[in-house]
Write a structure and sequence with these properties.
globular; mainly alpha; 17 helices; single chain
C-alpha cells in the first residue's frame, strides 16, 4: 500500500504556469489557498470549477483508498494458502482469486500518490516544507506500527533486519526476507519515501513538458512499467530464494520488478503525468463506471493462466487504475455524485493509511492466538470480517490519536511573527 498522502478530500487544486492553457471543460488553474477544507462551488456536470472557486476537494479519491487497502488485506488473509482450512478446495480457490489483489492495491496507491501530490502542489512551496509534511504524515504512524510489530509478531527478527526496517530501507535490499520483515506492508512505505524525495525534481520536470506532449510521456512510462518484469527475469540472477506463495517466482526478480524503489518510481511518475494532463484538459475522461469495469476486466486477465506473475502484478491493471483515479478527480471537480464520496467511505479512506500499516499485525497475531484451524467456510468468513473490523478500530485509534493531531500540528506552515520594522 501504499503509500499514503494528504487526504484527497482536503486538497487544494494547484496553480499552473501561465503558458499552460487548459482546454475547455478542464479544471482551471486557480491560485492555491491554505484552507484546504472548504468546498469549491458547484459546477455544471462535466465542467470544471469556475476561476472563483479556489479550492477543489476530492472526497472520491479519499473514499477509493479503503477499497484499495482492503485488496491488500484480502491478499494477506490468504497467506499462506490454506492456513485456516488445510487441504480444503475453498481455501485454495480463495488464495487463487486474491492472488493479484495486493499488487493492484499497491499499484493504485503509488499512482494515486503521484496524482494527489501533483494536484495539491503549492506554488512557491519550499522543498523542505513539502518534505516536512510528508515526514509528519507517514513516519510517526510507520514507527508506531513497527514497534507494535516488534512486540507482537516479530520479536525474533534479526537485529540488522530490525534496524533496516526501522530506518525504512528494506525495499533497497535485494533480499526477499528483508523486504517483508517485521511488518510486511512496510516495504511500500520504504519505497514511498524515495518517491517523496524525488517529487520536487519530478514535478518541476513534468511542468516543463508541453501539454500536447504529455500523452507521449504517459505512453512511454506505461511501456516502461510493462517492460520492467522482462528486464528483471532477463538480466537479474534468479538466486536461491523463491516466493513463499509463488514457488516458481524468484525473490530477486520480485525485488527488482515489484519492490525496488527506482522501478516503482514509474508508477508514481504516471500519477504525476496523469494529474498534469487532467489539470490542463489533456485527458479523455471515460467516467467512473467504465473505468471500474475496465479495472475488473483487467484483474480477470491478470488471473488467467499463462499470464506471467510479475507482469500481472506490475502492468495489467496499471492503466485502469490511472483511469479510475482521473475519473474520480474529474467527478469531484465537476460536482458529480460518486459511490466513494459518502461520509462512511471518506471516513474509511481517512483511516486507510493506519489500516494498511496495522492489518498484517492483526492477521498474524490472530492466527497465533487461535492456533486451531476451522472446518467451515462460514466460520472462516466470520473470522475474516472480525479481523477486518478489529483492524479498522485499531486504525481509527491511530488516526485519531497520532496521525491527525501530528498532521494538524506540524504540517501547516506557521505565519512569521511581524518584525519591529514591519510593525513600524
Amino acid at each position: 500500500m501504499a503509500m499514503q498522502e494528504t487526504p484527497p478530500s482536503e486538497l487544494i487544486r494547484p496553480s499552473a504556469p501561465a503558458t499552460d492553457a487548459p482546454a475547455p471543460g478542464a479544471p482551471t488553474a486557480d491560485s492555491p489557498t491554505s484552507g484546504g477544507t472548504t468546498s469549491g462551488s458547484a459546477t455544471h456536470s462535466g465542467a470544471a470549477p469556475r476561476p472563483g472557486s479556489k479550492v477543489v476537494r476530492l472526497p472520491s479519491l479519499t473514499g477509493m483508498r479503503f477499497p484499495a487497502a482492503l485488496l491488500v488485506f484480502l491478499f494477506h488473509v490468504s497467506l499462506p494458502a490454506g492456513w485456516l482450512m488445510p487441504g480444503d478446495a475453498n481455501s485454495t480457490l480463495f488464495a487463487r482469486l486474491v492472488e493479484q489483489a495486493g499488487g493492484v492495491g499497491v499499484t493504485f496507491f503509488f499512482v494515486l500518490s503521484g496524482f494527489v501530490l501533483t494536484w495539491s502542489a503549492r506554488e512557491g512551496d519550499p522543498t523542505t516544507s513539502f518534505w516536512r509534511r510528508r515526514y509528519v504524515k507517514i513516519v510517526p504512524n510507520y514507527l508506531v506500527a513497527w514497534a507494535l510489530a516488534m512486540v507482537l509478531i516479530a520479536a525474533g527478527t534479526a537485529a540488522w533486519r530490525s534496524g533496516v526496517t526501522f530506518f525504512m530501507l528494506q525495499s533497497w535490499v535485494p533480499d526477499y526476507d528483508t523486504n517483508f520483515s517485521v511488518n510486511a506492508p512496510g516495504w511500500s512505505l520504504s519505497t514511498e519515501v524515495f518517491f517523496y524525495l524525488c517529487f520536487p525534481l519530478l514535478f518541476a520536470g513534468v511542468r516543463r513538458i508541453a501539454p500536447r506532449r504529455l500523452k507521449f510521456w504517459i505512453a512511454g512510462v506505461i511501456a516502461g512499467v510493462a517492460v520492467t518484469p522482462w528486464l528483471a527475469t532477463t538480466f537479474v540472477p534468479a538466486g536461491d530464494v523463491y516466493m513463499s506463495n509463488e514457488p516458481t517466482v524468484s525473490g530477486l526478480h520480485l525485488w527488482f520488478a515489484y519492490v525496488f524503489p527506482p522501478a516503482r518510481l514509474l508508477d508514481f511518475l504516471l500519477g504525476i503525468l496523469v494529474a498534469r494532463a487532467v489539470m490542463l484538459g489533456r485527458w479523455r475522461d471515460i467516467g467512473l463506471v467504465p473505468a471500474g469495469l475496465l479495472l475488473v476486466a483487467s484483474y480477470v486477465i491478470a488471473e488467467l493462466p499463462g499470464v506471467p506473475y510479475l507482469f500481472a502484478q506490475r502492468a495489467v491493471c496499471l492503466v485502469p487504475c490511472a483511469l479510475l483515479i482521473a475519473a474520480g478527480a474529474l467527478a469531484d471537480a465537476s460536482g458529480r455524485p460518486t459511490l466513494f464520496r459518502n461520509r462512511a467511505m471518506v471516513w474509511l479512506g481517512e483511516v486507510s493509511f493506519a489500516f494498511y500499516l496495522l492489518h498484517f499485525i492483526v492477521l498474524f497475531k490472530t492466527r497465533e492466538l487461535l492456533g486451531a484451524r476451522f472446518d467451515s467456510v462460514p466460520a472462516v468468513i466470520a473470522l475474516t470480517v472480525a479481523e477486518c473490523a478489529l483492524a479498522v478500530l485499531a486504525s481509527w485509534a491511530m488516526y485519531a490519536w497520532i496521525e491527525k493531531p501530528l498532521v494538524r500540528r506540524w504540517s501547516r506552515t506557521r505565519p512569521k511573527a511581524p518584525t519591529a520594522a514591519t510593525v513600524a
